[in-house]
Amino acid sequence: MELSLFKAEVDAWLDANGRELTPTFDGIGTLDDQMDQLRKVMRLAYDAGFMRMGWPERVGGLGGSNLFRAYLGEALTRRDLVEPGIYSMPEVLAPTMIDFAPADLAAEMVPRLLRGEEIWCQGFSEPGTGSNLSSLACRATRTDGGWVVRGQKVWTSLAQYAARCVLLTRTGTTESAHRGITALFVDMDSVGITVRPIETMHGVPEFCEVFFDDVLVPFDRQLGEVDRGWSIAMDLLPYERSTALWHRAAFLQLRLEQLVAVAPAGALDPTGVGEAVQLVMAFRARSRGTQRRLAAGETLGSETSIDKVLLATAEQAVFDLALEGLGPAILSGDDPESIRWRAEFLYSRAASIYGGSAEIQRNIIARRVLDLGDEG
Amino acid sequence: MEAADLELFRRSVQQTTSTAGGAELDAVLAKLGWLDAVAEDHAAAVSVLFEHLGLANTTSAALDELLALTMGLARPLDQVVVVLPALRQTLPPGTASGGRIAVHGLGTHAAGRRESAIVAVTDGPIIRAVAVPLAKLERRSTAGLDAALGLHEISGDLAAGDAEDLGPVDWDDVVAVGQLALGHEMVGTSRAMLDLARTHSLERMQFGRPISSFQAVRHRLAEGLAAVEAAAALLHAAWDEPTPNVAAMAKGMAGRSARTVARHAQQVLAGIGFTTEHPLHLYVRRTLVLDQLLGASTELTRQLGDHVLTQHSLPAAFPL
Fold first, then answer.
1. Whose CA is closest to B34, among B54, B15, B51, B12?
2. By CB count within 10 A, which of A65, A124, A156, B298 is most buried?
3. Is B300 left (phi over 0), alpha (psi -120 to 50) or beta?
4. Are the beta carbons of B225 and A279 separated by less than 8 Å?
5. How many CA atoms lie within 13 A of A97 on its CB side?
6. How far is CA A173 from CA A144, A169, A182, A231, A278, in A?
7. DSSP secondary-structure letter at B142?
8. What is the DSSP string of B187-201?
9. Cβ B320–A257 below 8 Å, yes or no?
10. CB pairs under 8 A between A and B
């Protein structure tokens, strides 16, 4: 299918089904509200065939390029039908399954994810393992019946809703660093898993602590080879900075347009607006280039760290501007719109922290893109 | 342009710009058929040529020829100089009134060696182009911040009969194309400055190791690369539909990014970069002047904000 035809069909479908797709809550709602909305939109988009476009046929998709996925997420975001952060999680999780899971497992599971029937989470970070992912300690021990997992993860988005977890575990010695990591696909209802949501600054408890107390994971739930889990993490990180970021660009563009429309006259400094517009449009242009390279079959790599740097810079510029233009609403408003602006302003503070901090992205650019050699 | 043709064009331009400048470069570019390349693929030809002009820190009449072509003037254009607005300005450099034409603007390096000036003139509600022999105008070579750029101050007060009327021109379009070209040239100066700083950081030893191993230095260079890639992406996307607002946005971003790169590169190059024994200063000078030609980034950014505040929409869509 041509992209232009797909766009027209998606737009027509969104126009025709506006009532059913629209959230039933005002503003940002609760996280439960957002999750219900996400599942509903994904199911409807899947049933209409759109959610299957751009995914391989062997996992229930209809084939075609990643541009279909990029556009669908953009169109849903532009209409405020989904929160792009939680909507984009399959953009990271599904490629991992497609590339590394046993074929029958991927074929069984990925459609559930795309249909909104299941939420999945990604168990990477740990209390002692933030930027330095290769130091992770959550251990998997081989037994006759399968892997037994013991340890803790943190910052695990949506773990309280998740049916499955793509989990990185330590299978080598403590000193084995990136060489002794194995990826597992874990059922979240397994005996021994405890999930504790974390109260965040922006009021949405989307991150969790996850505790594993001798959790049994069958051998057929192993992703990739034993001790080779690092390559899975490295392979999926560029995904985290491609289609998901295109969706985020659409979100920033929308909020910036809404901001200039609702801010009281004179509340916004034109230079600040101009700078934010340049940053958002440059980020969008950059991300579009990345989408097109992916569609052309190129392998994405460390250069996508530039995309992430541009996202964090643009997002914080947009919401700094929002605080300037909508100060009273963000500081003291209690209506749904004000609450949403406040939550999103606060969440923008995390844009330079999550998904690889601003410093880590600059380290990657320095080491891998500028080829500056090792740090001292 | 086909990928193979584009690559050939890129290689030829790279070789040409790194070995020649001024009239010699103009001649080689003419032989290369660069204006044909522009006619065939505006975005590719302009971005490749001007980025390399910036990389090489060289001078040519390419901007004059590009603007003349955009005005719809018939070729050959190899004797043409297009008078630019004064620094920071974007309005036509000429004003017609009472049978006379007042000219106040800038000439490029080529104004020192060519004889026919094209001047865009505001004439009541329309903007028209006129051709004037440069000899009939005041032409003063200026050194200024970037002597090698060879800008000229051009001024004059002519009888309308001394100028050949070339008809109305779409001046907004001329400015837009010029802004994009200058934006690409600043991407070139940015890449050159970043490369100089990178090389220095790998070679300069302090505390027994290259300064490139210090995170503070690495992050400045990474920040510079992110800035230049943002500007380059915006410029390339701007060619989708280079309306005046989009082109001004892209040039404003390119100017701001280039100044960011200049600041980081200057800091990394430290003492040696502050001397004329190292080429950095040439690029810093060029960047600061290019930023002010056809609108300065500070002004373009504020105007963009004003426009968006009035229109409640962003100037471009950049669809997938």
1. B12
2. A156
3. alpha
4. no
5. 32
6. 20, 11, 12, 18, 48
7. -
8. HHHHHHHHHHHHHHH
9. no
10. 153
**Residue A174 clears pLDDT 90, i.e. is over it:** no
Phi and psi based region of residue A155 (left: phi greater than 0; alpha: psi -120 to 50; beta: remaining) = left
Peptide bond into B76 cis (omega under 30): yes
Interface of B with A in 131-150 (CB under 8 A): none
- High-pLDDT (> 90) share of chain A, %: 95
Task: Write out the H or E segment, with its range, that includes residue A31.
Answer: helix A31-47
Q: Which of residues 226-265 of A touch B (CB under 8 A)?
A: 246, 253, 256-257, 260-261
The mean of the pLDDT values for chain A is 96
Contact between residue B127 and residue B171 where contact means Cβ atoms under 8 Å apart:
yes
Angstroms from B66 CA to nearest CA on chain A: 25
ipTM of the complex: 0.97
CB contact under 8 A, A282 and B213: no
Give dist(CA A124, CA A137) in Å, integer: 10
Task: Name residues whose C-beta falls within 8 Å of residue A26's C-beta, 6 or more positions apart in sequence.
Answer: A336, A337
Q: How far apart are CA B76 and CA B91, in angstroms?
A: 26
B303 touches chain A (CB under 8 A): yes
Contact, B155 vs B104, CB < 8 A? yes
Structure tokens given for B113 = 């060696």
CA distances A36 to A339, B25, B290, B294, B316, Å, are: 19, 64, 53, 52, 33
Q: Please say whether the beta carbons of A48 and A62 come within 8 A.
A: no
List beta partners, residue B164: B131
Which residue is associated with the tokens 């700094």? A320
Per-residue pLDDT of B107-121, as tens digits, reads 999 999 999 999 999
Give the sign of the dihedral formed by CA B288, CA B293, CA B296, CA B301.
Answer: negative
- Whole-prediction pTM value? 0.97
Residues A243-284 have pLDDT tens digits of 999 999 999 999 999 999 999 999 999 999 999 999 999 999
pLDDT at A137 over 90: yes
Encode burial over A212-247: b for 16+ CB neighbours within 10 A, e otherwise. Answer: beebbbeeebbbbebebbbebbebbbbbbbbbbbbb
B316 at A interface, C-beta within 8 A: yes
pLDDT mean over A105-116: 98
**First-residue to last-residue Cα distance in chain A:** 51
Which of B265-270's residues contact partners 24+ apart within 8 Å by CB, and which partners? Answer: B265/B193, B265/B194, B265/B196, B265/B197, B265/B224, B267/B220, B268/B197, B268/B200, B268/B201, B268/B211, B268/B217, B268/B220, B268/B221, B269/B196, B269/B197, B269/B200
Question: Which neighbouring-strand residues pair with B95?
Answer: B102, B122
Q: How far apart are CA B281 and CA B275, in angstroms?
A: 7
**Contact of A181 with A160, CB cutoff 8 Å:** no
What sign for the dihedral angle of Cα A98, A100, A105, A109? negative
Residues whose CB is less than 8 angstroms from the CB of residue A280 and which lie 6 or more positions away in sequence, other chains included: A249, A252, A253, A256, A314, A317, A318, B314
Chain B nearest C-alpha distance from A106 (Å): 29
Q: Are A136 and A170 in contact (CB under 8 A)?
A: yes
- What is the three-class DSSP state of A57? helix
How many Å lie between the alpha carbon of A171 and the closest alpha carbon of chain B? 32
Q: From the list B210, B222, B320, which residue is nearest A365 (CB)?
A: B222
Which of B309, B310, B313 to probe the A interface (max A CBs under 10 A)? B309
* Cα–Cα nearest to A41, from A67, A80, A70, A1: A80
Count how many Cα atoms sit within 13 Å of the Cα of residue B108 in the half-sphere of its side chain.
Answer: 29
